[in-house]
Amino acid sequence: MKPSRFLPLAALSLLLVTSAAQGQTNRLFILPTMSGSTFNLTMAPSSHEFFSGSFTSTLGFSGSFLGPTLIFEQGDQVQMNVSNQIGEPTTVHWHGMHVASQDDGGPHTVIADGAVWSLSFTILDRATTF
């Protein structure tokens, strides 16, 4: 029996910023979710208005900063297609997920600017956050 779907709360990267000096509070920001067996992610520069009227340069995965919460089930076979549009070579690390060592990011898995890195793996992990 497969475990039920889960929404990793820690991965939502909730953003609640209060500035006593400015006397303002930003809205609670909840990142979008993605589920399925194929994930197309684009790393790209952007900007985000964390405080009203003030934009900050950012990098994000398929969004202005951070990235979507990816929802998997144990036993799923997933395909990741990661497009690097940030303007320089980079790498992606899966933060504890069980993936082959050659796919776990670092200097041996550089994604050239403008390239798409594709990998597939089976989700071995139980419900958790990464």
In words, what does this structure look like?
The protein has 130 residues and is an all-beta fold. It has one domain (9-122): Immunoglobulin-like. Helices cover 0% and strands 36% of the residues. It contains no helices and 8 strands. It has strands spanning 18-19, 24-25, 33-35, 38-51, 54-61, 69-71, 77-84, 116-122. Strands 5-4-7-8 form a 4-stranded mixed beta sheet, with no helix packed on it. Strand 4 and strand 5 form a beta hairpin. The radius of gyration is 17 Å and the shape is globular. The two termini are 22 Å apart. Mean pLDDT is 82; it is low at 1-21.
Put the structure in a nutshell:
With 130 residues, the chain is mostly beta strands. The protein is 0% helix and 36% strand.
Quaternary organisation of the protein chains: single chain
Number of strands: 8
Strand content bin: 35-45%
Major sheet size, sense and barrel closure: 4 strands, mixed
Helix proportion range: under 10%
How many separate helices?
0
Q: Averaging pLDDT over every residue, what do you get?
A: 82
Globally, the shape reads globular
CATH topology: Immunoglobulin-like
CATH homolog superfamily: Cupredoxins -  blue copper proteins
Specify Rg, calculated over alpha carbons. 17 Å
Order of adjacent strands in the largest pleated sheet:
5-4-7-8
